[in-house]
């Protein structure tokens, strides 16, 4: 069993930055691919960024490439999402996710979500 707890969301002006953290419980954190999804009101949940268990492979949605950076610290059981040059369209609830068997297509665990609001 893995529990995921996100933090770091909040209200920021356009052009600003936030860093989200996702702390995982359990001893097998390093065996999971991790990702950040987001869901805006009235829209489907979408994968924003993903990172392999070793950190050697990453994925970014086109809408965040060059602005967001995903990283992980397996010693701290934590995955991060550094978000720079934020835009109002980045406003959403951001969810951390863990996948033990695929590249974030068959999620084993979800966090509870953290709200990110970007004002114009």
Question: Can you describe this structure?
Answer:
The protein is an all-beta fold and 120 residues long. Helices cover 0% and strands 49% of the residues. The chain has strands at 4-7, 10-13, 18-24, 33-39, 46-51, 58-60, 68-73, 78-83, 92-99, 109-110, 114-119. Strands 2, 4, 5, 6, 9, 10 and 11 form a seven-stranded mixed beta sheet that branches. It has a four-stranded antiparallel beta sheet with strand order 1-3-8-7, with no helix packed on it. A hairpin with a 4-residue loop joins β7 and β8.
SSE pattern: EEEEEEEEEEE
Main sheet characteristics: 7 strands, mixed
- Which bin fits the share of residues in helices? under 10%
Q: How far from one another are the termini?
A: 40 Å
Nearest-angstrom radius of gyration? Answer: 13 Å
Strand content: over 45%
SS content category: mainly beta
Number of helices: 0
Shape: globular
How many DSSP-defined strands? 11
pLDDT below 50 for ≥5 consecutive residues: which ranges? none
Rounded mean pLDDT is 95
What structural keywords apply?
mainly beta, seven-stranded mixed sheet, four-stranded antiparallel sheet
Brief rundown of the structure:
The chain is mostly beta strands and about 120 residues long. It has strands at about 5, 10-15, 20-25, 35-40, 45-50, 60, 70-75, 80-85, 90-100, 110, 115-120.
Topology (elements, then pairings):
Layout: E1 4-7, E2 10-13, E3 18-24, E4 33-39, E5 46-51, E6 58-60, E7 68-73, E8 78-83, E9 92-99, E10 109-110, E11 114-119
Parallel strand pairs: 2-11
Antiparallel strand pairs: 1-3, 3-8, 4-5, 4-9, 5-6, 7-8, 9-10, 9-11
